[in-house]
Amino acid sequence: MINNIQELRERLFTSGIVKDKQELQGCTPEEIVYIESKYGVLPRTYREILGLLGHSAGKLVRGSEFEFYFDQLLKMNEWQQEIILESIAEAEECIPLPEKAFCICALHGDPWFIIANGQDDCSVYFLDDSRTIKESSKSVMDWIEELVEEVEYLIRKGLR
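The structure corresponding to this sequence follows.
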């Protein structure tokens, strides 16, 4: 079980997801402050994750799988806002994300998000195919651990 950022870092290396320090690139404090200036204060656990792996983390995410890293986060959050505004303007049925929602990744364009309200930790939610908001994980650390476990499985099977 991953309980903190140090354990996450250690697990990334021991599992073979990250081979060396060059593969693990976090966001700078200034980049995190920039996100928070636009979207609200991120939960401490997610800020720590961004600081550890916000730009790259070896085999954790392949570019074609889903948007996950800093530059993609900015584009994805802007894109989600545009979709909501366009849907409202065209009077389409639209499920807006909750206030202070911050998309932390997207799989095939479907967002996974947290609420940026400065908590220590928070649940992770996603918008499913029926456009219903559902809880994915009780905490950001649980969410990242699930991702790590999935990638460890793929490595063991020779798929990464």
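The radius of gyration is 16 Å.
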